C-alpha cells in the first residue's frame, strides 16, 4: 500500500463515510482530527509498537495489520498522505529471560541492560533486539506491509529525541504530578520518569534523579554509592514506559496508535503527559487480547499461543488476516484449532463479496484484508472437506488428493485452481500433525448399523455418478427413518464417528461425492464388520 493510490470513486467515498465497519469508524477519528489536513501538508502518522524482549508473535503482527486497515480506510475518506511507523522499544532493559530461547544462562548475566546490548542467544545478530527486530521485519516484509521501521536505540542515540527529552526535564515536576498518584507508596519513593544508563554497569537504572540543567539535559543520581552527573541526551538515558510513550508521540508527531485492553491505564497516563509536553495525544482504540487454549493471555516471554510461523505452516496469510479482523473488541482464543474454521470463513465471505452492494462490501472483512482488490477465484470445496478427505486417506499425497477432487469437480487441476492447490498443501500438513493422531473409528450400535445398511443400499442404487445433493437427500431421509427428525444430530455424529473417526465432520453428501460412492460403501462395510455395540 502506498500513498499514490488511485482516489476512490464518489460512491465509494460516500459509503465509507457512513460505514459501520470498525476501520472506517477509526479512520473518521483521523478525519475529524485534521478536517483541513495536517499543518504544512505533513503526512498523518500512524504508529505501532513492539517490545523485542521475546520473539514476535501474532499479537505483534495483529497491531500492524489492524493499523494498516485503519490507514487503508482513511485513504478511502481523504486524499491526505499517511505514514506508518513500526517502532521497536529496543532500548528497554531485559527484565527476565524468555522461556522459549536458547542459552538462557548466558542471557541471565545481562538482566537490566538495554536489549540492543544483550547478545543474541541464537548467535546470528549483533544483539537479542537486533535478532527479534529482524524476525518482525522479515515477516512484515513477506506480508507486504508498507511501513517504516524505527529503533528506540537509534532514535535516542542519534539525538532525534533530544529536544523532547529536554522538555521532559523542563516539565519534570508536572510529569511527576501525573505519575505519582498512580503508584503505590513504596514505588513513589523511588520513582523517576528518567532512567539513566549506568556508566559503570551499562544497566538501565531504576533510581531517583534530580534535574540539574534541563536545557543541557543534565541530571544527578546515585550509582553504586557514587553521585553521578550525566546527560540524558544521545542515548545516555531512556524514559520510564508511560513517559517514554508520551515523549515518542510528541517527538515523532504520532496521530494514531491502538493498544491492547491491558494498556488502557497506560494510554490515559501517557495522554496526560503528552498534554503536559504541549501536544495532543494520538487517536486510537483499545482492542481485546488473544488467549491461548487455556484462556490465558498470550505472551512473548511465555511463548504460549501461536507463532506467526506456526499459523502459516497450516493456513494461508489471508486466513490469519481474516481472524485478526473480526471483532477486535472481543477476546478470542488463538490456538491450532481455530485455523480450519478461519480458512473456511474467509472463503465464505469471499464468495459473497462480488454480489454485494458497495455498502455491504465495505463491511465485508475481505474488503479490508485485500484493500478492496478481492481476488475472484472460487473454491469448489471447503477446507474442512479437504481435511476429512485427507484424514480418511491416511498418509496421502498431493496427487492422491487431486485424483479425488477430479471426481468431484470436472475441471479440477492445480493449474485451474491454484489457490485450492495451496489449501491442499495446508490440509495435508494439518491432517498429518493434528487430525490423524486423533482419529478413532468406533463400532456402530444396533440402530446405527441398521441405518448404515440402508445407506449402503441407497448408495448402490444411486450409482457412482450420483450428485452430492441427491446423496445428501438420501442421508437425510435415512436419518429421519431411524433416528427421527428431532434426533438427526445423533445420526450425523454416528456417521462421523463410525466412518471418519471424528466427532465432527462435513456435509456427508459432499464428502461421499468427493470420496466416491464405491469408496464410501467400502468405509461403511468396514464399520459394519466391527462388532456391533449394545444400545
TrEMBL record:
Pfam families: tRNA-synt_1f. GO terms for molecular function: ATP binding; lysine-tRNA ligase activity; tRNA binding. PROSITE patterns: AA_TRNA_LIGASE_I. Gene3D superfamilies: 1.10.10.350, HUPs (3.40.50.620). A motif ('HIGH' region) lies at residues 52-60. Its main location: cytoplasm. It is found in: Cytoplasm. ATP binds at residue 300. Keywords: Aminoacyl-tRNA synthetase, ATP-binding, Cytoplasm, Ligase, Nucleotide-binding, Protein biosynthesis. It catalyses: tRNA(Lys) + L-lysine + ATP = L-lysyl-tRNA(Lys) + AMP + diphosphate. It comes from the Bacteria. InterPro entries: aa-tRNA-synth_I_codon-bd_sub2, aa-tRNA-synth_I_CS, aa_tRNA-synth_I_cd-bd_sf, Lys-tRNA-ligase, Rossmann-like_a/b/a_fold. Its EC number is 6.1.1.6. GO terms for cellular component: cytoplasm. Transmembrane segments: none annotated. GO terms for biological process: lysyl-tRNA aminoacylation. Belongs to the class-I aminoacyl-tRNA synthetase family. HAMAP family: Lys_tRNA_synth_class1. This is Lysine--tRNA ligase. It comes from Sphingomonas sanxanigenens DSM 19645 = NX02. The gene is lysK.
